[in-house]
Design a protein that fits this description.
The chain is α/β, with parallel strands linked by helices and 145 residues long. It contains 7 helices and 6 strands, in the order βαβααβαββαααβ. The termini are far apart.
C-alpha cells in the first residue's frame, strides 16, 4: 500500500535539502518561489509510482495572485514548529532555521528518499541567483523571488 505524504513532509523535506545545499533563506516577494514549489510538486506527481507514495494535498498557484495557499499555510505551520522564521510582517523572507541533526532526522523519516529531495531542490530552486543575475548575500545563499 502506498505511503501518504503530507504537504508538511514535502515542503519541509525540500527546506532540509535546500539547507544542505547552502540555502538559508527564501524570498517570497513576487511569485517565483511559489511557482518553484508548484513545479517541484508536479515533479513529485510524475514519480508517485517510483516511490510508492500518494500526496494528501495539492500545491498549485492561484491563477490571479500567483501564490500558493497550501505553501503559505505549510510555512506558517513550520514557523510554529521553529523550522523557519518569518522575519518581516509582509511574509517576504523565510529563514530556514534547521540544523544538521534535525535535518538528518527529518530526512530519515521522510517518505521520499533524501537523494530525490536533493535532486528536486537543485532542479527547481538552486542557482536561481545566476538565472536572475544576482549574487547570493554574504552569509546565506538566497533564492531570488
Amino acid at each position: 500500500m502506498a505511503k501518504i505524504i503530507t504537504a508538511s513532509e514535502f515542503v519541509i523535506g525540500i527546506l532540509c535539502a535546500l539547507k544542505i545545499a547552502g540555502v538559508d533563506c527564501l524570498r517570497l516577494s513576487g511569485h517565483s518561489t511559489d511557482s518553484e514549489f508548484e513545479s517541484a510538486y508536479e515533479d513529485l506527481l510524475s514519480t508517485l509510482n517510483l516511490f510508492d507514495v500518494r500526496p494528501d494535498f495539492s500545491l498549485a498557484t492561484d491563477p490571479f495572485h500567483g501564490d500558493s495557499e497550501t505553501l503559505r499555510e505549510t510555512l506558517y505551520a513550520a514557523r510554529q514548529k521553529g523550522i523557519v522564521a518569518i522575519n518581516n510582517p509582509s511574509f517576504k523572507t523565510v529563514e530556514i532555521k534547521l540544523e544538521e541533526p534535525e535535518i538528518d532526522e527529518i530526512l530519515d523519516r521522510s517518505p521520499l528518499p533524501r537523494d530525490y529531495l536533493m535532486k528536486i531542490a537543485n532542479k527547481h530552486f538552486c542557482n536561481k541567483e545566476e538565472r536572475h543575475g544576482e549574487q547570493p548575500r554574504s552569509a546565506s545563499a538566497s533564492i531570488a523571488g
